[in-house]
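Backbone shape codes:
===
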Amino acid sequence: MISVVQFGGSNCDRDAVAALSHLGIDAERVWHADGLPEDTDGVVIPGGFSYGDYLRAGAMAARTPVMDEVRALAEEGTPVLGVCNGAQISCEAGLTEGAFTTNRSARFQCEAVHLRVERADTPWTEAYDEGAVIEVPIAHGEGRFEIADERLAALNDEDRVLFRYCDADGNVTEAANPNGSTGNVAGVLGARETVAVMMPHPERATLPDVGGTDGQGVLRAFA
């Protein structure tokens, strides 16, 4: 069973459960204070505005006891995916490197973007071809991925960048970068390939009649 962790302020938890269920994957929402069920086979940290983004996005949720459980499962190789606010929480909790900060525009942005698949040999991307371009939506005010240049170089050397913002033809350009993310990075892996965070919303690109299906491949990792 995939546990979709719900915090006060989460607003994409139902979307995540619906998207996973559409793919035939058993999922349910789990209130953070109740801890993870023993039969948890995977974890989604969904989008939203946990704790109202006080201090900074994801900072408070990252320090709740349930994230200790998530870290322990991640270290065992259990699949963990952080999306949008879940990516912010996961970075704050040390599951991946980097941080997410205020968009270059200093505005909340909600739009469809293109992503280039940088690797096709991870659980999250094996449904795609390397270099493939997919279209998924973003909805964030603090989605700009920030990381020191030397650490970005290390991520590149270790092939831990999953997705980069690009144009429809797969060109990674400044114009195709919606929020000013360092290196156009839209998604990265943790120390294990079973841990990933991404700012765009794959669960909103899963149902054929709502937002397309380009995000299905990411969620199929939980199958």
The domain at 2-222 is CATH 3.40.50.880 (Rossmann fold).
